[in-house]
Specification:
The protein is built from 13 helices and 12 strands. The chain is of the alpha+beta class. It has 3 domains: 160 residues, 2-Layer Sandwich (Beta-Lactamase), CATH 3.30.450.20; 86 residues, Signal transduction histidine kinase, dimerisation/phosphotransfer (DHp) domain (Helix Hairpins), CATH 1.10.287.130; 152 residues, Heat Shock Protein 90 (2-Layer Sandwich), CATH 3.30.565.10. Strands 6, 7, 8, 9, 10, 11 and 12 form a 7-stranded mixed beta sheet that branches. Strands 2-1-5-4-3 form a 5-stranded antiparallel beta sheet, with helices on both faces. The longest helix has 56 residues. The radius of gyration is 53 Å and the shape is rod-shaped. The chain binds adenosine-5'-diphosphate and magnesium ion. Adenosine-5'-diphosphate (ADP) binds next to helix 10 and helix 13.
């Protein structure tokens, strides 16, 4: 599978390998050249020193010219180097190859001659290539008598040997490059597979989830970033699945909540159509129908509130206000109901007034929903009491609304904040409600960035407490 991750990685590796081998190759070749050059020069210089004596012997007339020529020739064979002996004017008078006698008498007139006759040893590549027709290494050495340069020798050795060595080097480099490339390609193939396979899987699962198959999960087990990604992906899929279930449940709940009052209304209207119905019954039916339409209106209003708050684009109109005043107003609002059920109200405000920051209307809704529940779930006995307190601690206002009602069993405590959740007792006792009140409360407090919690004991009562930002008294 030549996917694009593989292709890209191969390209990068290829470039890296080529560059490193090029650097390695060039430096290796340079190194070999230098090494060869040094070794050859050293050998030539060493022989040159021996040659020195022979030339001096010749100059002192101890040996003949023929003898000199023979010596030169034997050194040529030994060193594979052509030798010239020149006099002070740069004229060649001794030569190693018998076949190249025509060189004798020729004048050397370049820089090197001058430098060597000044007493320097030179060694260089290339200068005499044209003379010999092949690349040569040339070493030039002065010959001293009594510390004066009187003659010089030039030794030229062909350097095709180094070409052969370099050939070997090229071969080694190319073979190792080929091996490295093969290994790299295999490694890249393996790693790119490890990267791209899960990516392909993620891609295909994403498409499936997008088309509604929320139960699909990735099955990738590795400890690297890909493993982490698939872990997060699965978590996200799980959340999506939950959300989808909630959405479906929500629609079912709403339909159910709408259907029961509508069925009732339909039934009673049918009853009303009966001409023989007594006036008393007729009135009773109309009252029931009115009650049910009220319930429907409340339900729809609650749903609208919830969806508005959950949509997120719900800017809070934050103002500062006296929370005690708001609590009092709500108590007055529920005056009739409280009286009806004979409920006493205890109020304890630690500080009065207590200024807080928040959106007044929605905080009023929070208070109203909680008091409404408290009244609804009170036992109807003479001891019933509603206790409302407010206090301030560390720049936070704590507002508590407690009742002496039925209480909430531990296993229900988690659920009361959920949409449409109604406790068992509220169903069996036919206490009216939509099950949306506390979801709205929670949502409002969440939007304020505050907290709300309950303490409750069955048959003793329930206490709701929430926080708000308190403003220090200015006086
Ligand atoms: N003060 C309370 N005492 C006992 N149970 C309560 C109290 N407040 C809420 N609950 C429980 O929480 C559930 C959810 O409340 P809520 O969201 O206001 O819905 P509703 O009032 O429509 O039933 C109630 O049905 C009830 O079981
Ligand atoms: Mg309620």
């Amino acid at each position: 599978m030549l996917n694009s991750v593989f292709r890209k990685m191969t390209l990068v590796y290829l470039i890296v390998i080529l560059i490193s081998f090029a650097i390695l190759g060039v430096s290796m070749i340079k190194m070999f050249e230098n090494y060869y050059f040094e070794k050859r020069s050293e050998a030539l210089i060493e022989s040159g020193e021996k040659l020195n004596k022979t030339v001096i012997q010749y100059l002192n007339n101890t040996i003949s010219y023929e003898r000199l020529s023979v010596e030169l020739e034997s050194i040529e064979r030994f060193l594979n180097a052509k030798i010239w002996v020149i006099d002070k004017s740069g004229r060649i008078y001794g030569i190693s190859s018998v076949s190249e006698q025509e060189w004798i008498g020729k004048q050397i007139s370049n820089e090197d001659k001058v430098r060597v006759l000044q007493g320097k040893i030179i060694s260089k590549m290339g200068e005499y290539d044209e003379v010999f027709g092949v690349p040569v290494l040339t070493v030039g050495m002065p010959i001293y008598i009594n510390n004066v340069v009187i003659n010089a020798v030039f030794m030229h050795t062909p350097v095709y040997e180094i070409d052969e060595t370099l050939h070997e080097v090229y071969k080694i480099i190319l073979t190792s490059m080929a091996v490295a490339l093969i290994i790299a390609t295999l490694l890249i193939y393996y790693t790119s597979q490890r990267i791209s396979k899960p990516l392909t899987e993620i891609n295909s699962i994403t498409k499936k989830i997008a088309s509604g198959e929320f139960h699909k999960r990735l099955n990738i087990k590795s400890n690297d970033e890909i493993g982490q990604l698939s872990q997060s992906f699965n978590n996200m899929a799980k959340d999506l699945e939950k959300l989808e279930e909630m959405r479906k449940g929500f629609i079912a709940d709403v339909s159910h909540e709408l259907r029961s009052p509508l069925t009732l209304i339909k039934g009673y209207i049918k009853g009303l159509m009966d001409e023989n119905l007594s006036d008393e019954k007729r009135n009773q039916y109309v009252k029931i129908i009115y009650g049910e339409t009220e319930r429907l209106t409340e339900l729809i209003n609650n749903l609208l509130d919830l969806s508005r708050m959950e949509s997120g684009n719900y800017p809070l109109n934050i103002v500062s206000f006296d929370i005690n005043e708001l609590l009092r107003r709500n108590i007055i609002k529920f005056g009739n109901k409280l009286e009806e059920k004979n409920i006493d109200v205890d109020v304890d405000f630690q500080e009065d007034p207590l200024k807080v920051r928040g959106e007044m209307e929605s905080i009023s809704q929070v208070i109203s929903n909680i008091i409404d529940n408290a009244i609804k779930f009170m036992n109807n006995d003479s001891e019933d009491k509603l206790m409302i307190t407010s206090c301030i601690k560390n720049e936070k206002a704590y507002i508590s609304i407690a009742d002496t009602g039925l209480g909430i069993p531990n296993n229900e405590k988690e659920n009361i904040w959920k949409r449409f959740y109604k406790g068992d007792k509220s169903r069996s006792r036919q206490i009216k409600g939509t099950g949306l009140g506390l979801s709205i409360v929670k949502e409002i407090i969440k939007n304020h960035g505050e907290d709300i919690w309950i303490e409750s004991e069955v048959n003793k009562g329930t206490k709701f407490t929430f926080t708000l930002d308190a403003i220090k008294n200015e006086q």
